[in-house]
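Lab notebook: predicted structure, single chain.

Context: the supervisor wants predicted structures on file for every construct in the current expression panel, including those that have not yet been purified. This is the next one on the list. No modifications to the sequence; it matches the entry in the shared construct table.
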Amino acid sequence: MSPAAKNIDSYLADLPAEHRAALEKVRGTIKATAPEAAESISYGIPTFKYKGRPLIYFGAAKKHCALYGSSGSVIETYKEELQPYVTSKGTIRFPAG
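Prediction complete. Output recorded below exactly as produced.
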C-alpha cells in the first residue's frame, strides 16, 4: 500500500495514465471555474476548498473516477446530462476514458 498523498500532484502521479488524464481535466476545470479555491488533500483524496470550506472532492477507484460532495440538488438539476453516469446523493462516478 502506498503512503497517503501529501498534495494533488503526488496523488495523481500514483494513478494509471488514463485515470490521471481524466482527473487532470477535472482539476483544470475546477481551477478555471473557481480560481480562488485552494487545493488540498482531505480524506485521502484531492479537494478544493473555498474560503476554508470544502468545495468539491475528486478521486479515482479501480474501475472509475468520481466527483464527491455534490449536493443532491445539483444532481437533480443536471439529471438529464448525468444520465450516462452512476450517481448517488452526493457522488458522480464516470469512466476514466
